[in-house]
Amino acid sequence: MARVRNWQLGREMDYPYEENRPARQVCMLFDLNKCIACQSCTMACKTTWTAGKGQETIFWNNVESKPYGFYPLAWDVKVLALLGEQAQPWEGNVYKGTTIFEDLGMNQRIKGYLPDEMDYAHPNLGEDECLKILDGEGDYIKGPTHKNWGFFFPRICNHCTFPGCLAACPRKAIYKRQEDGIVLIDQSRCRGYRECVAACPYKKSFYNDTVRISEKCISCYPKVEAGLMTQCTTQCIGKIRLFGFRTTDYDKLTKKQVRENNPFDFLVHVRKLALPIYPQFGTEPNNMYIPPVHVNPDFLSQVFGPGVENSIKQYRNAGKDKELLAALLLFGATERICDTFKLEGNETVGYDPQGKEIIRVPLTEPVYIRQVKNLKTGAFLTNNS
Amino acid sequence: MLPVVTPAFASGGPAKDLSIPIISADNPGHWGGHEYHGSFKRLPPVQLDGGETYVEGVVKSKKIKGEIPMDAVNRTWHEEDPVRETSYNQYNQSWEQAPATVWSDAPATEIQMAPQNLVMPGLVVPTVPVVKIKSVHNDKEIAFLLTWYDATKSETETMEDKFSDAIAIMFPVKDGAEPSFMMGDDENPVNIVYWKAAWERDLEFGYQDVRDAYPNYNYDMYPEVIPAIGQTIDTPIRRYNEGQRQYLTALKLRNISRVDPERLTAVEELNAVGFGTLTRQAQNNSVGHGVRRFGYWSVVIKRPLNTGDVQDAVLKPGSKTMMAIAAWDGFNKNDGAGGNRGPRKNYSNGGWVPLEIE
């Protein structure tokens, strides 16, 4: 085991390989306040990549209804239980518990579990349990009684800096690309041991029954290489996602030498509005989430770590915070990967890596007042007259 | 173990325990009517393949004349007899009437197996405690008969959490070299022949696909299926053309260790130069066939003594070399992360076993 530096934990941790950060890192931002669980992203991914035989239970992208929806069944609560029965302790921004790479049993390489085949049979089972106040009367889930709250949780592979799947593969069939940090499974080298399926704490490596090997999200690399965002990002009708490249150099991150004009660095490292998903797992996931403002803060802290309070406070104030609004309005505005952005008066302008302008979005939409009636034809142009 | 009540129409006797026992050397169980103690020498069915002479600490390949058949057991004796197959007791009287096979006079070696825990992930306790091996050759071909006890038949890999029973034998590629028994080393590659129960099933029933694992499964349509030429969602993947195969990436890339709808034999040849380097050979010279009787797998692996393939070990009559064994119990879930596969295996305790070819 080597010692690696994990900025999300605020400390060093064990990892089977030396720290080797890519030149740049793909990153996806999700605004959970805007997700409506329409599953457009799921279907965009499914129809593009995983519609073939054997891929029936493979969802590289899925949207869960939290707190009780899962895919595969109970994935996150099972991994949390592996880390210990008590809640994972944080002291400020430093994680004091163990990750999936630490405190291992005698024959373990990584703490993980292999889901049962039936865990894949019912995507999002439990989604309706958050629609009313759980009081134990007739509820499928017997748990703590609490008021109803819930949110929709879109998930894809996190293309982690320290991937659990890569660490677990006994054959080194999984690799992380140096040029963009995308984690891939070599389909000609995989022997279907499913160690990656068991090891990935996010359960985003899937087993294909027909070809008998594991498959995972490829971050739409043919699109990324062409400077485009992924299918799940561009097909999102709620415009909740933003895809691009984030600074990954540890020294730059800790010394605050990040690019403030890069929307990802700005939202993640400068404003700390977007937070990692289950940072306590220790894989340094690169998908970042803007937590939903109305959800139980204890639950949010468990999922997104410390920093939830700061994030929600800023998000509630975003309407008055023009700089923040400028970054948030890039979400869903273009299919091209946005490298930098700038606030120009009442507009946010996005630029590609060559510095060429690719998108211009007004912070406030201009108001147009439509005529009630077309004077020529007499047809009504509104439906409330 | 949960007691299961026998249906009233069956026998009227006491309730039977029908659950499957987990058996190890320290925890002897019973199966098929006999006690299992982790050693073949104390078992009645040691005569699965005729008489038995044991040698210690060495595998001796006996020279015979004529062809070496791929049958692990003499099928003329008790073939197609499902009732008797399940009950040793009914055979108790007739073991000595078993007709001789090519294996009858070959000396047997009992190899104690150890759990692989040198590289993680591994096993804590052995799941296949002992493997019996016999070998014969006829100056052209050499064959190995491997027999081991496994209470559970695991022969599907077409479900997310299912793994196959398997066994492998390993030789040094270079004549006279002594590679690390842990998958070889940089200077000294090893040659591995790997048999898997799932491939045996593929050969017998056709390549096992989703519909075989889940008979009631339904799916609207796969994009690669062409209804205009009469294809349905149940069209076997071996009928797919090259364009259709693109939807099954591993099939298109010919990862035949995993997806081989045109498979010819239940073994494959591999090479390794250390942990994590196992690689399939382009040319497969070995053939294998396994059968299951009384809870035992009996697998015959046969190959030419000199295959002409530089990646294979050359085995010469009258020479001494060495071999090692690895075995997997696909059912065993000893740590919650699935059954035996990959490094979660049992290996011949002590590493290399001398192999003397007569």
TrEMBL record, chain A:
Its cofactor is [3Fe-4S] cluster; [4Fe-4S] cluster. PROSITE patterns: 4FE4S_FER_2. The keyword Iron applies. GO terms for cellular component: cell envelope; membrane. Keywords: 3Fe-4S, 4Fe-4S, Electron transport, Iron, Iron-sulfur, Metal-binding, Oxidoreductase, Repeat, Transport. It comes from Candidatus Nitrotoga fabula. The keyword Transport applies. It is found in: Cell envelope. PANTHER family: NITRATE REDUCTASE BETA SUBUNIT, RESPIRATORY NITRATE REDUCTASE 1 BETA CHAIN. Pfam families: Fer4_11. This is Nitrite oxidoreductase, beta subunit. Its EC number is 1.7.99.4. One of its GO terms (biological process) is anaerobic respiration. It comes from the Bacteria.
